[in-house]
């Protein structure tokens, strides 16, 4: 009440809100610029950012562009979602397939249809168990063979979990007593300011022109081709280009959305359904890239300043690593899951931790699930942790000790 009286007593041109920092995401690109400007951290920062751009962001953008182009030709609501209404077993299987689709779309379809009474509780468990959210894009782009295997494993474990739940619970178990689908929680509805919309448009233009050349350079780098030597460029040129480009992309990303709460921090940006596939790919790519940078820079700076080999350090945790991956997976949002996947890609986390995280994590799908059916979301998340524990520790004891 005191703050309210104070704000009311202030002149019209002066208010408390004007002192609140806007676009807190700017902390990331500003920190990166400071690290590049410092002579102490310049080399490690440029090399890390270059690797993040050419070896991760470029492949993620390419993978996402293909995904959004293909999804534009496939109406999931009509072609797939309708199939799982024919029987309880079909519901579970197709829910697991929808969950395996990277991103939030498939899981949101199943969640809203559970609320409306069209699918049962087993379908919710199946979709939340099989989904990886945006972490799937990162894994498929960086390690496609492992990514495809984990996606397939997610479908199998998700379907099996859903069928077991169907044998225990009725379809109406924990269904909320509401009939509306609450479409406001789906992707694509978000009021943007003028600055945010301009940044979103520039983000799309950025990747529209860079997608092909960046993918070509990334592919050449994957085959151990020295790009600087191939193009007769001075040493470290391509590394500096990658570092500059990724900082520019983070500057654009930082202005596309304000951080207001936990969800707006860890969840992907909302996208207009009518947006161009490249525009959607750009928004998702920069979100994934931001969390990859956090993981990569933390890894490299801890190693650089502390002279600590995190891969060796985490290997000492041994039996606790799958549990760590599982625990992070219980957190809503894609951001924490991307951190775990980044640690796996960099070699700091074992595959058992990645497997436990992939099965336990629900990505951004947990937010609409909590909003529409909180009790069902909580119990389904707990149920998804059980197969995550079994698979993570099963792989650990079979192959990692």
UniProtKB/TrEMBL annotation:
Keyword DNA-binding: no
Residues spanning the membrane: 52-71, 92-115, 121-141, 148-168, 237-255, 288-308, 320-345, 376-398
Coiled coil: none
Keywords: Membrane, Transmembrane, Transmembrane helix
NCBIfam families, sorted: arsenic_eff (NF037962)
Keyword Iron listed: no
Protein name per its UniProtKB record: Manganese transporter
Gene source species: Vibrio ouci
Top-rank taxon, per record: Bacteria
């Amino acid at each position: 009440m005191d703050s309210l009286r104070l704000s009311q007593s202030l002149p019209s041109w002066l208010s408390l809100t004007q002192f609140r920092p806007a676009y807190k995401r700017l902390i990331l690109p500003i920190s990166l610029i400071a690290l590049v400007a410092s002579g102490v951290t310049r080399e490690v920062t440029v090399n890390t950012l270059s690797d993040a751009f050419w070896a991760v962001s470029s492949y993620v953008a390419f993978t996402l562009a293909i995904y959004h182009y293909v999804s534009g030709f496939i109406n999931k609501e009509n072609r797939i979602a309708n199939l799982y209404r024919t029987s309880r077993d079909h519901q579970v299987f197709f829910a697991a397939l929808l969950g395996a689709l990277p991103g939030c779309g498939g899981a949101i379809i199943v969640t809203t249809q559970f609320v409306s009474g069209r699918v049962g509780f087993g379908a919710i468990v199946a979709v939340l168990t099989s989904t990886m959210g945006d972490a799937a894009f990162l894994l498929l782009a960086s390690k496609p063979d492992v990514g495809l295997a984990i996606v397939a494993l997610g479908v199998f474990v998700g379907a099996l979990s859903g069928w077991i739940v169907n044998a225990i619970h009725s379809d109406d178990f924990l269904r909320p007593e509401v009939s509306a689908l609450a479409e406001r929680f789906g992707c694509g509805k978000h009021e943007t300011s003028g600055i945010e919309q301009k940044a979103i448009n520039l983000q799309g233009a950025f990747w529209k022109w860079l997608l092909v050349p960046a993918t070509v350079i990334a592919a050449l780098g994957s085959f151990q081709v020295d790009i600087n030597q191939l193009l007769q460029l001075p040493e470290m040129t391509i590394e500096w280009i990658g570092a500059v480009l990724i900082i520019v992309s983070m500057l654009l990303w930082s202005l596309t959305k304000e951080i207001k709460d936990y969800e707006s921090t860890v969840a992907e940006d909302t996208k207009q359904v009518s947006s161009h596939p490249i525009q959607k790919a750009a928004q998702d790519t920069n979100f994934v890239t931001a969390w990859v940078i956090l993981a990569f820079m933390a890894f490299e700076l801890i190693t650089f300043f502390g002279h600590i080999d995190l891969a060796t350090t985490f290997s000492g945790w041994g039996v606790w690593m799958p549990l760590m991956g599982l625990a992070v997976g219980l957190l809503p949002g894609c951001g924490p899951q991307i951190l775990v996947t980044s640690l796996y890609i960099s070699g700091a986390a074992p595959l058992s931790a990645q497997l436990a995280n992939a099965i336990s994590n629900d990505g951004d799908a947990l937010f609409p699930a909590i909003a529409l059916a909180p009790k069902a979301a909580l119990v389904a998340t707990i149920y998804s942790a059980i197969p995550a524990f079994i698979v993570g520790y099963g792989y650990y004891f079979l192959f990692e000790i």
